[in-house]
What we know:
Chain A has helices at residues 3-12, 21-33, 139-145, 171-187, 204-207, 209-214, 259-272, 289-292, 320-337; strands at 38-40, 46-50, 59-65, 70-76, 82-87, 99-102, 108-112, 133-134, 151-154, 159-160, 165-168, 195-201, 222-230, 249-253, 276-280, 301-308, 316-319. Chain A is of the alpha+beta class and 341 residues long. Chain A has an eight-stranded mixed beta sheet. Chain A has a six-stranded antiparallel beta sheet with strand order 5-4-9-6-7-8. A three-stranded antiparallel beta sheet of chain A has the order 10-11-17. By secondary structure, chain B is an alpha+beta fold. Helix content of chain B is 28%, strand content 28%. Chain B has nine helices and 19 strands. Chain B has helices spanning 2-7, 16-28, 111-115, 132-136, 164-179, 197-202, 248-261, 275-281, 307-325, and strands at 32-35, 41-45, 52-57, 62-68, 74-79, 90-94, 97-102, 124-126, 144-147, 152-153, 158-161, 184-189, 210-218, 235-238, 240-241, 244-245, 265-268, 288-295, 303-306. In chain B, strand 10 (152-153) and strand 11 (158-161) form a beta hairpin.
Amino acid sequence: MDRINLLKKLTAAPGLSAAESGIAAVLQSELERLGLKAHIDSFGNVHAVMPSEKKDAKTLLLEAHMDQIGFMVSSVTEEGLIRFDNLGGVDERILPGMEVEILSAPPIYGVIGALPARGEKEKKNPKLSEYAIDTGLCAKEAKDRIRPGCWVRMLHKMTPLQCGRYSDAAMDNRAGVTAILECLESLRGARLPYHIAVLFSTQEELGLHGAYTGVIPGSVDAAIAVDVTHGTTPDTKEEVGVFPLGSGAVICRGPNLHYAYTKQLLALAKRCGIPHAIEVASGGSGTTAWAIQTVGGGIPVMLVSIPLRYMHTNVETLDQADIGAVAALLAAAARGGIELA
Amino acid sequence: MLNQLMETYGIAGREDAVRSVITKALKQSAIDYYIDKMGNLHAVRGGTGKQYFLAAYMDEPGIIVTKITEDGYLKFDTVGRIDPAFLVSKRVIIGECYGIISLKAIHLATRAERETPVRTDQLYIDIGAASAADAAECVEIGDYGVIASGYRPMAHDFVKGRALAGRMGCFAILETLKETNVPVHAVFAVQREIGCRGMTAAVWQSAADVSIVLDGIADQSPDGKKDTLKVGDGVVLTRRTGSGSMDAPLWNRAANYAKEHGVPVQYGNLKERGQEGALMQNGGGHRCLCLAVPVRYMRSCAQVASLKDMRSMIACIKGIIEESERGSLG
């Protein structure tokens, strides 16, 4: 399957944090399509291994979180409006006019209306807790059918833009997942120096829980976490740590990431002519690499990211070539481009 | 037919596609029509006796491109009544190409930025272009854009869409033309969104005995306002609008008719000056009544309204005509 169709299939699959079974099933079948045995563990994580012929080969883990942000119903008002909480962190400013689906059985369509800005002197935006979903249901029906705790997803559609750029919800982190699948596809039939373990983890947006539970202690010699990083927008030009779309694979450096392996990864990107850039995380990287680093007594971990504009919205925007660059870098590493000690 | 009317885009100044949908319906009903120099669509059924004038509008708000930046982003102005708060993270369609209106990610925004209402001049459209030259290949300054948002049913008779009041008015006129045989001059106007330009021109030298203007009115109940009009509780018989008072005998009769025949109606005043303003000041002055459907999130492209209210609007128009024909109206 080509990159865009795969990405589209993955962003379309439902997988809100702690409710990832939809995307997990799709990923299981995608891994099986690549000839790998895949299984879903009790925490919802998806696992697979592409084995090396060498029995005693070291294991390199490729990991990406598969969950996506959304909302959760907090209460139903006396007027039948649905109040909600953040599930992963959304900017209130994108809420007015947003179309959503409340994942009750059956799901219910709704619209988030707008509230007038408040304040005597200086007008301020309403808080998230003041917004509500309007379903058209009356209070009794709404209370009957919608329970607090129901997941709510943003409705979205993949939109092709100019210059190979695409916009959709859940690019964070289905783009990373796509890069790993594309890498595995390119490795089919190759003689691998390492066993390539794959983990698509749950609940990253809630606290990296899937990565903490899904990495099996003692089974991994090194890991590469794949995620998204911030893409440059006109209002972030002056910021540090944002990357123009088309930068390629963004390789992160800092204490969360293994120093020597990351150096090797950078040299590899240079050697193979893979477009790349360097990101710096002086402390936590804000990704699953943070969890993987300490599992089971510690795992050397690297972090590779795809630049993404408007992160945590329903219109996250990326350049498809950057997914390709990450896939190429992962494949080069898996083929022995980095030397595991 | 209603679906098509609701799905079709028609920003103020580019109403062509909506007009085509309506002319097709007029042809099917064998009703004569003409298009004036402004682009207003007039449907006319002649005859003797009382003359009725019906007014609705075809246009909707959107954006217009004002600048292409060096990096290939588009700056824009809003066209018509749309609140920039509703534009963040929305998709726009500009001719053949798609764009995204957005802001920097939440992770990079300060608390102050998140708390401050957005202004249009802060926003930009991202069409994916990597440079100004890339952008110029598909967009020109002055091009119009619409917010991508479809029409869809919600629970009960609620619907979500864009331009709901305008299109419900157009549909109500088409239904009235089909279901009555009195002399009617109906105008499906252009450019209501930017100050009723179309209707101001369309009523030039027009005359009628009874004029009914169809519009929308904000339902603010989701904002916690009490005693407000509510979507689903019936069409609003406006007593006053920003243009002045509605014709008293006409209003009384409409209210009585609704009561006698169990047509759900609500009462309220429109703050804004709508198309009735053009009718009251032009063409010798029409005796006007403005019927408005309640709409939630009026200045957005994800409006919510009720088909029930549209049906009660149609029932009211027919009722007013019926009463007038019996001679009980002026």
